[in-house]
Design brief:
single chain, 544 residues, alpha/beta, Rossmann fold, Helicase, Ruva Protein, domain 3, 3 domains, three-stranded antiparallel β-sheet, 14 strands, 13% strand
Length: 544
């Protein structure tokens, strides 16, 4: 059989089964010798009669059967252990490129028996590459959330002091958590919830992060993100300048509250805003066509309006600052929302996550501090994030690990721009890729390219009167896009940074107990219906 006419994982199965058979026959022959006297001159005839008596002689068939069963068990274990998951044809020589291994083999390569590790798809991540960030890609229901939950669980577990590791310090989680799905499983006493529609939420506002005047420039790009469109970025940049100047003016006047910021950027008349910014860098933006200022204020309304929800809890709840928490805070942070709240909170959630990345990068580098894990499921559904790429490339100095979930690379490209999205994806060196919907050929194709190719030599034999043998050098993807489309649920490909082989893994569904309600609706002006029986103070009557 030529190398190209069988699968790679089948290359040794025939030989292994033959060894099992030879072992069983050898055991039977040994038992027959011990039980009977086998004359050498009539050995064949004696073996024939011994074979006929085997079904009626337990001393012959019992050891033979036991050896066969044991051999088949060993055969099955070895077949599973060495099954690489490569579904292509066998090859004679491997030249270069990516390789595949079984999950058990990869687990043995990466396991550190003396130190707890983060877990990616059931594979322990080597300590030396654990800071190179993590991506989880897959369509809805493919197993992405299970894998992220496993990652969170491993991060929290290794921060618990044990009798053999009394010096362990808790590692912190910041999770952008749709529907509170992870918080309800992993919430711990002392954790912090950020959601203006949740009654347990701490009070966060952009002014909680301002320490010096320069900070308004640092965080203005998080409040008004950059646009992937060059034309739209003109308006965003102008809106960003106005935002920074208003933030700074209010802060210097000791009026730095979310309520004041929302009023001046979304409700104040143009003339009033112009007067406020007369002596700032934004003054020149009020001299020109009304259409220009109208476009800028449209941008301000889009990104600033969601901050009005914060004003309802600004004085009612204890204040929270990402910068203070990063410096000396404890517990984990859960940024939650319910699906029906996403359209209202999306710019705000994106701002909070980006502010956290900026705050982490502005903090002094300290490799001795416990790791902080930024976990964001469905990162592609958020607005453009400006500091997450920098956090991905420079966060290692600050013990900042990012774990992000994606459903579609096309949506990520649309939000961030193709080049910026590619740069963002390049930040994640440790990846777990689940099944992708059949129609999303772009994401499946990109995953296939990312898993890599290999170059091999295959042996070809042709029949006929003059059989010939040829050797062809072939280059092919290790995993085809169609294989990614056809992955069963909870099955995916793990690719670790460096020269580690790729492994096809299958997760086991784990039903973790619920420890807290994911969302407890607050009762404020934004979450309760108005009293329609009260007399309106507005006159909506029209003159006849």
């Amino acid at each position: 059989m030529s190398a190209g006419s069988r699968r790679y994982d089948d290359r040794h199965k025939g030989l292994m089964f033959l060894l099992v058979l030879l072992g069983s026959v050898g055991t039977w022959f040994w038992a027959a010798q011990r039980l009977y006297t086998l004359p050498h001159d009539q050995l064949a005839k004696a073996l024939y009669y011994a074979a006929l008596s085997t079904p009626h002689t337990p001393l012959l068939w019992v050891p033979t059967t036991l050896v066969f069963i044991y051999g088949m068990i060993v055969f099955a274990v070895l077949a599973v252990y060495f099954r690489s998951g490569f579904e292509g044809a066998d090859f004679a020589i491997f030249l270069r490129g990516a390789t595949m291994a079984s999950p058990a083999q990869l687990r043995d390569m990466t396991r550190n028996w003396f130190s707890p590790q983060l877990i990616l798809g059931g594979i322990p991540v080597p300590i030396k590459i654990e800071s190179q960030h993590y991506s989880f890609t897959g369509s809805t229901g493919s197993g992405k959330s299970q894998a992220i939950a496993e990652y969170i669980e491993s991060a929290l577990a290794r921060g618990k002091p044990r009798w053999y590791r009394p010096w362990a310090k808790p590692e912190r989680i910041v999770c952008v958590d749709p529907n509170g799905a992870f918080m309800e499983k992993f919430y711990l006493p002392g954790d912090i919830i950020i959601n203006p529609f949740d009654e347990r939420s701490r009070s966060w506002g952009i002014y909680n992060e301002i320490r010096v005047p320069f900070d308004v420039e640092l965080f203005a790009v998080s409040v008004i993100p950059k646009s992937p469109s060059t034309e739209q970025e003109v308006w965003n940049a102008m809106a960003r300048t106005i935002t920074a100047e208003v933030m700074l003016k209010l802060w210097r006047l000791n009026r730095g509250t979310t309520d004041h910021l929302v009023y001046w950027l979304t409700m104040a008349p143009n003339e009033q805003l112009q007067e406020m910014l007369a002596d700032t860098a934004a003054a020149g933006m009020f001299h020109g066509a009304e259409e220009t200022l109208g476009s800028v204020r449209t941008v301000l309304t889009r990104y600033i309006t969601p901050h009005k929800f914060l004003a309802a809890i600004e004085t009612a709840q204890k204040e929270f600052s990402f910068r203070d928490w990063l410096d000396n805070g404890t517990g984990n942070v859960w940024i939650t929302w319910r699906e029906d709240q996403l359209s209202a909170l999306k710019p705000l959630i994106s701002c909070q996550f980006d502010v956290l990345c900026a705050a982490a990068l502005s903090a002094p580098a300290n490799r001795k501090r416990p790791a902080t894990h930024l976990v964001a499921d469905e990162l592609d559904s958020l607005e453009k994030l400006n500091y997450v790429v920098q956090a991905g490339t420079k966060g290692r100095k600050h013990k900042l690990y990012i774990a992000a979930g994606f459903q579609s690379y096309a949506q990520l490209d649309d939000t961030n721009g193709k080049q910026a999205a590619l740069t963002l994806r390049n930040s994640f060196r440790n990846t777990l890729s689940f099944g992708i919907a059949d129609m999303d050929t772009y994401t499946a194709g990109e995953i296939s390219k990312g898993l890599g190719e290999h170059e091999v030599i295959r042996k070809r034999e042709t029949g006929g009167k003059s059989p010939t043998t040829t050797y062809d050098k072939e280059r092919e993807p290790l995993v085809m896009p169609s294989q990614i489309h056809n992955l069963p649920d909870l099955t995916g490909y793990v690719k670790l940074s460096g020269r580690h082989p790729i492994a096809r893994v299958t997760l086991q569904y784990k039903d973790r107990p619920k420890v807290i309600e994911p969302i407890v609706m607050a009762k404020n002006v934004w979450t309760t219906a108005p009293d329609f029986d009260s007399v309106s103070t507005l006159n909506f009557a029209r003159d006849e």
